[in-house]
Every structure is written in C-alpha cells, then in structure tokens.
Design goal:
Layout (H helix, E strand, L loop, with lengths): L13 H19 L17 H61 L4 H5 L3 H5 L1 H9 L10 H10 L1 H8 L3 H18 L15 H18 L5 H4 L1 H20 L3 H4 L4 H7 L9 H17 L13 H8 L1 H21 L4 H30 L24
Length: 395
C-alpha cells in the first residue's frame, strides 16, 4: 500500500502552527464579545472564522501524525495513539468545563451579577446540578463558548476507522464526507443538546472540514495543486473574499446594508454557522488556496521572530485554546464590572493574548524538561548542553 503524505516525516509545516495559533487568538478576541476587540477577529470580514480554520488544521495534522502511526504500527497501534489523544482533549474539556462553571457561579454570586448566569448558560447547573454535570460529561450540556472541544472529541473519536479507510480509499471517503454533509443539511441531522436544542457545531456538517484537511494531508493536495498557481483561481478567489467581506460587514453596518438588495443580504445573513453553510465552506477553501499560494512551505519569513509567538501557540494548541476560552469569560467580566472603554478593551485583549502566549512557552519548556534524561550512569554523563531531547508528537 502506497500513501502520499503531504510532508516528509522529518518536516514540520510551520504554516499549520502559525495559522492554528492565529485561530486561537482570533477565537479568544471574538469570544469576549466587545465592540472593539471583535473587529480584530476574522469573523467580521468573511463568512468563515477561527473555528473553521481550527477544525480544518486539526484534521490535517491528525492525518499526518496518526496516519504515519497507523502505517508504521498497524491499525491497533495507530488507533491506540489516536484514542489517547481523544482522552487528552476530553480531559481538557472537562477540566475547563468545571473551572468555567465554578467561576461563572462564583463571580455572579460575589458581585451580584445574575446576568452572567443566563448569558453563559449556567442556569441548568443551578436548576439540576447532578443532571447538568452528568450531561456535561456526556458532552450534551455546553455553557457558552464551550462548543469546539466537544466537536473535536467527536471528530477524533470516530477518526480511527475513517483514517484507516482513507489510507486505502482516500477519494471515496472524501466523497462520502461530502454526501454526509449534504444529507445532514437536507434532513436536519444533528446531535441533541441539554437542556434543549441541538449542537451549535453540527458534527455531521463540520466533519467536512476535518475530513478535507485529512484528505489534503494524505495526498489529496496533489491533484488540486494547480489551483494554487492558477491566475484565474486567484482572481475568482479575491473577488469572492471581497464579496464575503461586504456581505458580512453589511450585517454589522446598517449604512452598508441599505446599499444592498434585500434578497441578497438575507441570503447570507444570518450566517449559518451551525450547519456550515456552503458559502462558509467555500470561503475557507479559498483562504486555504490563497494562503498556500502566498505563503509557501519554504517561505523564509516563517522563521522571522515576529511570528514565533503565534507559532508557539499553534504548537501548544490544546492548552492555549482552553486557556483562551476561560480568559475570554474573565475578560468579559472585567470589562462589564469596570469599564468597557476602548483603552480598557485593548488592555484586556492584549493581556489575554500575552497570557496565552506565556502558557504556550511554558508548556513547550515543560515538555522539553519532561522528555530530557534526568539521570545518567556515574562517570558517563554528557557534557552540559549536550542532552538529547527525543522528538515527540506535535501538540
């Protein structure tokens, strides 16, 4: 069996880390929900946003890492390593879930701010605490902004057989993913939420981005690579991005909305994020194609010091994401309890990104310490600075 991976085994695509780190920053800013910080997020200028990018890159990197594991050690070995990652994501979500609920409840009670309970969907915990916690463990109960990791858990949890099949019938699995996407949109397939409703990120629809990433990583990029160099694709892509920006901004600026035909505006507003609207998927696909065109894998600029914080946040993505979600709530609380002026918002946004970056550097350092040898036979210790650090899996 011959499988074409997009990268040699020893190469790490810094673009993936860069854009995954960027997605984490943008989701943090967007989740604070303030008038100023939201303008720094991706979502105000197009149909897709940081969540779309995060899911796509997760599929890409998962296929690269665990596809190699499955090829080297077989299905059982690859599945075991993959499920270990699923457990890490699930544990991170539960830890975040508990801290999040406790913090919302504590701050709402201590500062007489009951509005936090309703805004962050914590009321079910007060009404039926045992049931709410149980449903949270089952990924059905999700407070505000805690929707991405449950989606990630589900997509990774069902990925072992999907990956095994993709290694053998890549294009057929991609086709099946497309058919599942359209069937879910047509028949309203989704998972139930607690206490009512359905998942905000419909797994039957959002799996398309995850599988697309995996498909490209496992060789699917080769037959569509011509799009990266096509001048026609460039012109059409730029035109679509401008179109998406205008339609998205029209939903935020009444003056711009008045200039557009009402049927055209209503066709794209509100943006169907739950079921991953086709225009949303197309927007991200174009961003990916243009990104590959203007930022090749060997771009020297990727090594520039200015990008290192973003790359580091992308390499420690799970920890940074979880901290960013929690900080978004803390940032919102601080602004509402003190001042929501422009300067205060910028300070909160800057402080949050600084903390996320600090967490990324700390986790990177700690992982190196954990992997470094701690002891050596007497008289056979390597010179200082010559310890060999084994290479582990990407975060």
């Amino acid at each position: 069996m011959r499988v074409e991976l997009a990268l040699p085994p020893s190469t790490r695509d810094l673009r993936l880390d860069l854009f995954r780190g960027l997605a984490n920053w943008l989701m943090f800013l967007g989740h604070i929900s303030t008038s100023v910080l939201a303008w720094f997020s991706f979502r105000n200028y197009g149909f897709s946003d940081g969540a779309d990018l995060f899911v796509f890159i997760s599929g890409y990197t998962s296929a690269l890492v665990f596809g190699r594991r499955m090829l080297e050690g077989g299905f059982i070995f690859g599945t075991t390593r993959l499920l270990r990652r699923v457990w890490q994501i699930y544990a991170a979500h539960i830890l975040l879930f508990v801290f999040y609920l406790a913090s919302v409840h504590f701050l709402a009670s201590s500062f007489n701010a009951p509005v936090l309970i309703d805004r962050f969907n914590v009321a079910p915990l007060l009404n039926a605490p045992v049931e709410a916690i149980t449903q949270g463990l089952l990924l059905r109960y999700k407070p505000l902004n805690l929707d991405v990791l449950p989606l990630y858990v589900v997509l990774m949890g069902v990925f072992p057989p999907v990956l095994w099949l993709m290694l053998r019938h890549r294009d057929w699995i991609m086709l099946a993913s497309v058919l599942l996407y359209f069937a879910a949109r047509q028949y309203g397939w989704n998972l139930p939420s607690y206490p009512a409703g359905v998942w905000y990120f419909n797994p039957f629809a959002w799996q398309l981005l995850f599988v697309l990433g995996a498909w490209l990583a496992l060789g699917g990029a080769k037959p569509v690579h011509f799009l990266v160099r096509s001048r026609l694709a460039l012109m059409i892509g730029l035109a679509y991005l401008i179109f998406a920006a205008v339609l998205t901004l029209a939903g935020l600026l009444p003056e711009l909305q008045k200039l557009l035909p009402l049927p055209l505006f209503e066709a794209f507003n509100p943006n169907d994020k739950t079921n991953l609207a086709p225009y949303r998927f197309l927007h991200l696909a174009i961003v990916i194609v243009l990104g590959a065109r203007f930022i090749p894998i060997d771009a020297k600029g990727l090594q520039a010091a200015i990008w290192k914080p973003l790359i580091k946040c992308g390499q420690q993505s799970l920890e940074v994401f979880a901290v960013g979600i929690y900080l978004a709530f803390i940032g919102y609380f601080i602004l509402k309890m003190t001042s929501d002026g422009v300067v205060a918002q910028l300070l909160v946004g800057t402080a949050g990104i600084a903390i996320m970056t600090g967490v990324a550097y700390y986790r990177s350092w700690w992982k190196r310490v954990e992997k470094a040898p701690h002891s050596h036979p007497r008289g056979n210790q390597p010179p200082l600075g010559k310890h060999r650090v084994p290479v582990g899996e990407p975060a």
